[in-house]
C-alpha cells in the first residue's frame, strides 16, 4: 500500500515539471529544477513505480463535445450501489460522493441537442434516487488537465512548458493511432519501447512522435493523488454569476492555483468550479475572499467525501 505521507518539495516540483511536459527529458528537468540528473531519474522512477504518479497521453479536448453536470440525491444506505452503477458507465468520467453521504456529483458526456435517457428516464425511475438536478455545460474554462501545482516560478514553468510549434495537423493514420494508444498507458515510454509495441521501426516512431507532438495531436496529463500534495480538501462549488460577468469570472477562476476545473453551465447556478485546498480554513478564505472579490453572492459547496471516479484514478 502506498504511504499517504505528503511528498517533499523536490518530488512536488518534479510533479509540477511533469504537468508542464509529461515527456520532459531527465536532462532538461534536472537543469531547470536545479537537481542532479541522478536525483531526477531515481525520484521519477520511484514516483512512477509506486503508482504515486501516472503520466498518460490524452487526445485534445473536443470543444463540440457535450457534457452534463449531475447532482443526484440518494437514500441513505443506497448511495454506494447507485454510485457504482454510474461509475461503471463509460460516459461518466467523474463521480464524487458528498461528505454527508447522501448525494452524488457527476459529469456525464451527453448530446446537448437530445434528451439523455440517463437523466430523463433511468435515474428518475430508480427507487433509491430522490432528486436529480442536471445542467448542461456551455463552456469549459479549464479542466483537470489544465491544473498546475503552484510550486514553480514563472520562468521555470516557461522553460518546462511544452508548446505545439505547428497548427498544420494532418489526419491521424493507423500507425499514428497505434502510437498514441501505446502512450495512453504511459506517456513517458521511450520511442524504442513504443516501436516494439506497434511493430514499426524506431526511426519511424521517433519521427512520427515528433510530428504528433508538434501538431498537438496528443497531450500529456499527469495524475497524482492531491492528498500526497498536501491538498486534503476536495470541493465542488456551484455559483450564480450575472451574465455580464460570467466570462470574466470563469477565466479568472481558471487561473486560480486551487481550481482544477471551471465550467459555465445552464441553470440559475451557472458557474461550476472544482477546487483542491490544504484545509477547511483555506476553503473558507476561498469562499469569503476570492469568490467575494469576484462578486459572487450565491453559491453551494459540495464537499467531496469520496472521489469514486476521476481520470487517471
Automatic annotation (TrEMBL):
Coiled coil: none
Classification via Pfam families: AsnC_trans_reg, HTH_AsnC-type
Residue span(s) of domain HTH asnC-type: 7-68
Keyword Transcription attached: yes
InterPro entries attached to this UniProt entry: AsnC-type_HTH_dom (IPR000485), Dimeric_a/b-barrel (IPR011008), Tscrpt_reg_AsnC-like (IPR019888), Tscrpt_reg_AsnC/Lrp_C (IPR019887), WH-like_DNA-bd_sf (IPR036388), WH_DNA-bd_sf (IPR036390)
This protein's UniProt keywords: DNA-binding, Transcription, Transcription regulation
This protein's name: AsnC family transcriptional regulator
